[in-house]
Amino acid sequence: MTRVILIFGGTGDLSRRKLYPALYQLHARDKLKDTVILACGRRKLAREEFESLAGEFIKPRANQPPAAAFLKRVHYHSMDFNHQDDFRSLYGRLVELVPSQREMVLGYLAVPPAELEPVVRNAMRTLNRSQRARLRLLVEKPIGTDYASARRLNSLLDRFVGEHNVYRIDHFLAKEAVENLLVLRFANRLFERIWSRESISCVQISFSEQIGVENRAGFYDRTGALADFVQSHLLQVLSLIAMEPPSCMEEDPIKNAKARALKRLAPLRAQDVVMGQYGMGKVDGKDVPAYAHEPGVNPASRTETFVALRTHVRTPRWKGVPFFLMTGKRLGKSEGLVTISFRPPIACLFTPGGKEHGHTHKYSGRKAFDLGTSQLQIQVQPEEVFRLRFNLKTPEEALSVKPFSMDYCYSCDYLYQRLPYEKVFEDALAGDHTRFSRRDEVELAWKWVETLKQKPQLHHYMAGSSGPAAADELLSKDGFCWQKA
Ligand code: BG6
Hints:
By secondary structure, the chain is an alpha/beta fold. The protein has helices spanning 13-28, 47-55, 67-73, 84-97, 113-126, 129-133, 147-160, 176-186, 189-192, 217-242, 251-263, 410-413, 420-430, 439-449, 469-476; strands at 3-8, 35-41, 74-78, 104-109, 135-140, 166-169, 200-208, 273-283, 286-288, 306-311, 323-328, 335-342, 361-363, 367-369, 375-381, 385-393, 401-409, 458-463.
């Protein structure tokens, strides 16, 4: 059967950076047989213009076919998503490309949240019931701009194609190290037994990015880091760490357990949230402009490009354990880290402390130790590393204890992995919902974001730095500091 992949937002940043490279990989793996790809965008582009725009981020690996052959397979259609007539002509174009009309259509909504509704409504008016039955919709995050709009959109999607044909994307759920969180927790008794307040003192989830707003000012300036990144990616990672064990490793029990964890999040208080916006600076040796001077950004913008926050999961397992979340653009490095810090040993043979708690302790009045905090760290990117930090003695004569690290570099063993968006396409084509967010997860995440009643003061930080100093103070108040890889 012929399949059609229809991309709305086909000239946007997401399509260029992520979707075409992922589709190219599927093409290179010969997974797109009998598949027609049609990209739709507002821009009127000549064929060559479209190909050069769509091909910019495709990087074939050794022995992979040239990108040109793939790009020839991608058709382009220019249209206005607000005009219903344009949807009729889009339908006409589809019939021209795939005359059988028995095809399954996978529509990818790679458009900003404000445009999701018009696209869905216009498509709904254009297609009849049996045409809708052959349609699956991939919806890019953020789903809506707030709780109310997310609910409206979800209801609309439900009416249009039904929940079973909606695939809500959070591509972090397709990142190998994030998927591994569940396996690490539940396939190793070692970790599952210590996964609670008894042993864990603090959880940190931090994703720093070197990139700035890129070509997405129109979207980003209306959205900000809290809605763009925290509401989706960071909360998905948090729920995988905080959830209770599901009854089995199946889709619904896992999603139920994640949703329950989200429901138990403590409301956000302004004093637990630090927001920042980047000023000019140097990233990777290159001068970069301040956010407010990026093309397309309102120079008086108060949009946050950095968020750090503290929250709690109000369950017996996590009582009193702070969860610190952080994300920011134009920081000094690009790195995604989850750090689980363990409490000091119960028997005080070695006085706990170390630098994290601000002082170094003496042993028998003779020897100073730098006892480190035992940690499990999951580095999600750029490399995937599973790291265990613990204290050991050194071979010197006098007893001397030092923190060591044991690293397993997963991405060194698995050099070629499928890209997250490659998995997303493959799963949706196969009708598998496992790696997608369910309606209630998305709505609960928005509900929690809206518990922040008042945005806190906006700090400015220099591009290339590690963010505003206030983000460090947020942790030091509790005796912690941001962990590095
Ligand atoms: C997107 C956000 O969902 O994820 C972007 O909208 C962010 O702001 C991106 O840069 C990060 O994804 P990745 O896979 O490049 O780390």
